[in-house]
Amino acid sequence: MSKLLDKLNQVSRGSAPPLGFRSVVVAPKSPRMVLIAVLSAGDAPAIAAAKENADAVLLSVAESTNFFEKLEQLAASLGELPWGVSLGEASEEQLSRLKGAGCDFLVCDAEKAPLMLLRKGEMGRIVKVEPSLPDGLIRATTQLPIDVVLIGGEPSLSVQQLMVCQHLANLVHKPLVARAPLDMSSEDLKELWETGLAGVVVKVAGEAREGLSGLRQAIESLPLARRRRGEKAEALLPYLGEEEEITEVEEEE
Fold first, then answer.
1. Domain assignments of the chain as residue spans, ordered by start
2. Least enclosed by CB within 10 Å: which of 61, 90, 114, 173?
3. pTM (2 decimals)?
C-alpha cells in the first residue's frame, strides 16, 4: 500500500468519535493531520526542510526530454520520504516508469485523469475535485476506486474556503486534503482540521525550514479529537394552516 495513503487512513481512523459510553484510550502518537510539501527540482534548502518536517512530498518537475532523469535524481535525494507527482494525461508507459522509480502516489485532475489511473492500485490515487461540481458528482467519488480527494482551487484562508472544506467533508467519505498557505497560523490550521481535513498541501521554496517546522509543531499540537460541529437542535411545532382554527372547549360544570 502507498505510505501516504496509510498515514491518511490512520488520521481518518484516529479522528472517528468513540461510540457508546465506554472510555477509549487514544494512542498519543496517532497522527492528527498529514503534511504534504510541494517541491521544485533543484531546490536543496526546501528538500532539506521537507525531509525534517513533511510526511510526504509532491514533486514539481517541468516536463522535458529528461523528465524522468530529473525526477529520479530528485526522488533519490528524499531518502525514505514518500513522494508523488501531478499528472495530466499520462500513458501506460509513463505510469509504469513512475512506479519503477518509487513513486508512492499520483495527483491528477478529475476532468483529465485517464481511466487507467483507477487501475493503478499500487500507487495512491489522489484526484483533484473542483468545489463547483454538483454534489451528486462529488459523492460519486465514494463509489469509485479513488483513494484521496484533493479540493481544487488556490490556497486561501477565507471564510468561504472554510465553508467549502466543510461542505466537501460532509459529502466525501474518503480522506480529504486541501491546499493551504505555508505561513498560516496554528489557529487557522485548527479551523481547517475541524472541518474534517485529513491533510494539507503546502508549497515550499527556498529557506522554508522555519515555516515548515512551525506548521509541523502546529499539527502536533492539535487536540486528540475534533470537536463536533453542527446546528443546535430546536423543537419544531406543528404548523397549522391559516384556515385552521384552534377551538377551546370549556368544560361544563
1. 30-220
2. 173
3. 0.81
